[in-house]
Amino acid sequence: MGRRGSSSGIKSSGGPAERDAAGGGAGGVRRHRHGDRVHTTPSTPPPGLQVPLEFERAAGLPSDEAGVPAGEGRILLGPHAVAEALRAGRREVQVVFLSAVEKGERFRDVARLARSRGVAVRQAEPALIETLAAGRTHQGIVALAGTYPYLGLREFEQVVAERGAEVLVVALDQIQDPQNLGAVLRSCVAFGVDVVVLPERRAASVTEAVVRASAGATELCRIARVPNLAEALRRLAAAGVEIVGLDPEGEVSLAEAGLRPPLCLVLGSEGPGLRRLTGELCHRRLRIRIAAGGVASLNVSVSAGIVLHAVRNFPPPPA
Questions:
Q1: pLDDT single digits (tens) 17-32
Q2: Is omega for the bond preceding 261 within 30 degrees of 0, making it cis?
Q3: pTM for this structure?
């Protein structure tokens, strides 16, 4: 089955590839086995990949929309990502596709949730699901959503002002791996981070891979994309927020830091870490003490979880 601009003969109106989940059944379709599925699973789609949509009318999409660009986070894959987007309601979910040959409670739960939000639900044959997923893992559930609702710089500053002395921010300095970004965002949601700041350039954005890696936490997280990370950090400092960078060579250990809001935790990229200017803008640089003779460093998402847990759960040291 082709995936680059070819519809592979999948039809939307009256054809077998798609059925309304409220009424249509499998209709003689043989249940496919695990080995029949496509398992080429690139972490990110090739640049410029367009997922063809020949079902705009059935899905209630604009008839002039020929496809959804892959890699923009608009194709939600798997039950967690789809359910979290529906619950959060922060962006429009246009249609949910459920595999016509797979059944189970998770399918019923997603269908009920989608209908309660007024979202169209369709049953689709495996070929259509695979085309939409473009080879990525989907567990038989795919949804088409609107663009990701990033905060701008003004909205970001408004969140900081509203949260005041309790604000907790995570700024990511050119983290490019989608799996790392997704895992960091999940930790941010788990520990109540108010807003995550991403630079617009040379950094991962919210793509399908990031949404899935976060298990849908992207839909619960406020993310600001800013043209200049250094300027965003300066504005936070001017608002009275302490800027703390995570650095293996940091002058203070996590155990001694006594981290408390208002706080911005800055995490560097997977290889180089914090850029020079970013490090210079930090009030303190923090290190995580690890066992001698063990690993040289920790994954950025693991480090984020450790430090955020400490912020929320460790009492400050006595004065």
A1: 444 443 333 333 333 3
A2: no
A3: 0.74
